[in-house]
Structure formats: structure tokens, C-alpha cells
Design brief:
343 residues
Length: 343
Amino acid sequence: DWTPTMIALLAGTATLGIVVQAAVLMVFWVRAGLHLRPDFAWRGVGLRNIGRLAGWTFLMVIVGQIAGIVQSQIMSVVSGDAPAATVAANAWLLYMLPFSVFVLSIGTPYFTQLSEHAAAGRDEEVRTDIARSIRLLGLFMVISTAVLAAAAVPASRIFTTTPDYAVDASWVLLAFLVGLIPQTVLFIIGRVFYAYNDTRTPFFFTLVQASIVMITAVLALNLPTAFVTAGIALGQSFAVCVQLALATWFLRRRLSRIGITRWMPSLALFAAAAVPAGLVGWGVYLLSGAETSWMLENQVTGALGSALIGIVALAVYVGILALLRVPELTTAWQTVRRIISRR
């Protein structure tokens, strides 16, 4: 049971980490020539507009939290020897790993450029930004999906106590992975709305997404107990796909066209290269013994096995793209080198 001291320690250290992060950021501000000077002259700075934007964003967060609570409550109902909520949380952690590494680190900087072009009314350049960012992120995220799918069981073993639990948990991870690429595209589409100072529209397509998440979570209770959590995860992936369709439709109404033909063929090409790469990775798992593989002996071997599958699949993927002379491959390599050199 959690005691007040344990809660205070966990929350306090998390808050302290944020404070330290802010302090370090201020040091680099000074080094960059930026100086913090409090200014309480608030008239004319656009607080009304900021409040409106923040209000819709806050409502969006509330809706997401409600959907998450519904999911958690349903998963707690079906929890057995291995709590369903823990299985889902670990699968979500694996799902979010490539999203955090690639989408947040590479996709976020595009927001500055998007905002600049949107503020200047240069819609054609906004369309170019959309296409360029989706193509670049797609190159990374498509193979990430294939690798995680091929290594679903060994990767799940990292967070489970037995091979059998790893096999069961892998279904949850696979269900989440259905929505990984749509989630990536949605990240960029959503940032376009923010670039135009529109948080109201994202609230409405997020409301639809959250509603679908809750409905599918309830419907998942009709599945066999072993597959309820996977059903909830699949429902969430379906909700993301619907959310992306709505977001794209709303954005087309704003921009007339968003240049889907400028990035969809690239995603299809990446997928065509990732399928054989993923199958080769899956073959490595099967050749190692599948459910009796050394990869499932413990958490360490699960991590090593996942890494091996990832390396093999990535090599095949890069090789195919190189043979096809895909231009995004060079761009991706330059981006990775630039990020590494900065660190």
C-alpha cells in the first residue's frame, strides 16, 4: 500500500526534477544571450487569446484523462494473476519509445517552421512542411513498427516474469502498434492547427477519439478474458485512425488541400520495404526457438534478443531503401548525424 510518505517522495522528486530542468535551461538561456526580465505590463499582450487557446487545450486534457480512467477501471476488472493495467502500461511504454525518440525529437522542431509559415499566410509552404516532416518521420516510424512487431514477444519479456506472460503481453503491444504510424501523422497534422492558433478544432476530433476509446473499452469486455486488454488497445488504435481521418478532413477545409499525394506514396514505399525487413526479424525469433527461445529466458535476454532482431531488420530495411535510392534515406542520415553532433 502507498503511504503518504511514499507519495510525497515520488511526487516531490518529480517536481524537484522539473525545477532543476528549468534552472539548467535558464543557464543555457544566458549562454545564448537571452535574459529573463519580469514584466508585469500585461495589457495588450494577448492574454484573452492565450486564455482561449489554453481553455480548449485544458478541456482536451480532461477528455483524455476521462478516457484513460475508463480504460484503467475496465482493465482492473479483468485483472488476474498478471494485472491487466500493468501489462497495458508496459506495452504502452514500448509503443511510446520510438515515438518519443523520433517524433518528439525530430517532429517538434518543425513546429517552429510551421508556425512561421502559417503566421505569414504562406499556405503552400505549410503544405510543403507537412509533406517533408511526415516523409522523414515515416521513414523512422514504419521500420520502428516492423521491428517492434517482429520483436513483440522478446520485448514484452523485458517487463514480464515468465515467457508465458510475455506471449500474452505481446498481443497488447501488437494491438497498440496498429496505431503507431497514424499517431505519427496525427502529431504533424495536429501541430498545423496549433500553428494557426486553433486549439478548438483539435478538441473536437480528440473528443470523438476519446468517445471511441471508451466505447471500444466497454465492448472489449465481451472478449475472452485473456484478450480483453488487447481488445482495449486495439480499440485505442482504431480511435486514433478515426481521429486522424477527422483531423485530415478538418485541415483540408482550412487549407483546401494538404498534399496527401506528396507523402502517402512515400509511406507506402517505406511499408513495402519494412514488411520483408520485419519478416526477416521475425524469422530470427523463430529460428532461435520462438516460445522456447533463449530470448525469453529472462529480462536481459529479452532485451538482447530484441536488439538482435532490430539490428537485422534495420539492416534489411536500409538495404532495400538504398537499392531503391530513396531520397529520404539521405535526409534521415543527415538528421541523425546532426542530432548526435549536438549532443
